Amino acid sequence: MKLSDHPLSLVQAVADLRAVASEPALGTPEAIRALGANAVEEWHRVRAANALAPVADGGPMRDAVMLAAVSTEEDPVGAMVATAMLLAQTIETRDHSDDWLWAWEALSPYLRSAPARVRAALMNGFKRAREIGIAADEVRPSDQDCLTRDSNEVLKRLFAIARSMTDEQRATVATYDYGQDVERQLDALNTVLAHPSCAIGAAVSETWFPSEVVELAAYDHEAVGFVPCFALVMIWTVQDRSYAHSNVGSRWSGARRICLSLPMPIRKPILDGVRHCYEGFDSFDDVGGDGHAHLDKTLPWFLD
Questions:
Q1: How far apart are CA 185 and CA 116, in angstroms?
Q2: Neighbours of 4 (CB within 10 A)
Q3: pLDDT band at residue 293, thresholds of 50, 70 and 90?
Q4: d(Cα 51, Cα 45) in Å, to the nearest integer?
Q5: Interatomic CA distance for residues 78 and 301, integer angstroms
Q6: Cα dihedral across residues 73, 78, 82, 84: positive or negative
Q7: What percent of the chain has pLDDT over 70?
Q8: Which residues of 276-286 are buried (b: 16+ CB within 10 A; e: fewer)?
Q9: Which of 99, 100, 171, 221 has an alpha carbon within 20 to 30 A of 269's alpha carbon?
């Protein structure tokens, strides 16, 4: 799927479903194993090249995937892999021949005890399928179903990154509103970072201080203090989904490369913050689908 044709929220949902469909750690569905060793070998080979290859054409392998998808009680993990594969293909092809209510009713109880990323990927897939008119209206994951991580867990790790901003970085960030109100911006920034929740209103009731300078720094990956300021914006958005200046989708699309190049102890909490905004606040809906070419801006998915 291309961002030039679809919003990033839908592309992200399909990317995550594809990731579940091709995740080696989830094993091979029992229905595929029943086809024999050669079929299992082919399953691994074609799926590694293209997560949806096993269902691209008719034949024994597609039939086995269909069987796996309805074998929830016998093989719940295999059903999750098969459903991810079939649901991704259905969304990509806009196939309206199935309302997916059967899969939702059978699989959702098992998903709630599945690994968090698997659950969130499939729940968001169901949600997007309903939104585009493919799945039945009764297919309604809860907000919590769609989240990989709890907001408190996401925030706790972002706090540490935001507070890593050095005194020298803070002094520079405070100048980013064209050198205006530098002392007031710096005082507000220090107050926010010292507050237990780093809340945007912790400094003064007028949130221009320090949000204006933090926003400007978080938009420019070459700016001094970019990473801790990016973390602050994620914090404010997670705390308040109506935060007016977050623009997480467009912010992510511009900063994706630099965020992915960060050291893992910093990269992981940042990516989890962005993902939380996508999963919980539909923050990617405003990116893509505009007729312009885009780079691949989807968030990476990994089982942990």
A1: 39
A2: 12
A3: very low
A4: 10
A5: 19
A6: positive
A7: 93
A8: bbbbbbbbbeb
A9: 171
Q: What is the pLDDT of residues 162-189, one digit of tens each?
A: 999 999 999 999 999 999 999 999 999 9
Sign of CA dihedral 118, 110, 55, 10: negative
Which amino acid is it at 137? D
Q: So what's the pLDDT on residue 275?
A: 94
Structure token digits, residue 215: 């926003």
CB-CB contact of 224 with 217 (8 Å): yes
Query: In sequence order, which residues have a C-beta less than 8 Å from that of residue 292 and are 6 or more positions away?
Result: 4
- Which has the closest alpha carbon to 12: 262, 296, 218, 224? 296
Helices (H), the chain: 8-22, 30-33, 37-49, 60-69, 76-93, 101-111, 116-131, 151-162, 167-173, 182-194, 208-219, 226-239, 248-260, 264-281
List pLDDT tens digits, range 253-274: 888 899 999 999 999 999 999 9
Q: Which of 28, 191, 13 is nearest to 92 (CA)?
A: 13
The angle subtended at Cα 18 by Cα 13 and Cα 20, nearest 5°, is 100
Per residue in 192-220, pLDDT (tens digit) is 999 999 988 766 556 689 999 999 999 89
pLDDT of residue 21: 97
CB 229 within 8 A of CB 223: yes
Q: Distance between CA atoms of 213 and 58, rounded to whole angstroms?
A: 56
Is the pTM for the entire model greater than 0.70? yes
**So what's the pLDDT on residue 292?**
54
The three-class DSSP label of residue 288 is: strand
Q: Above 70 in pLDDT, residue 71?
A: yes
CA atoms 190, 267, 143, 116: torsion sign: negative
Return the DSSP state at 25. G
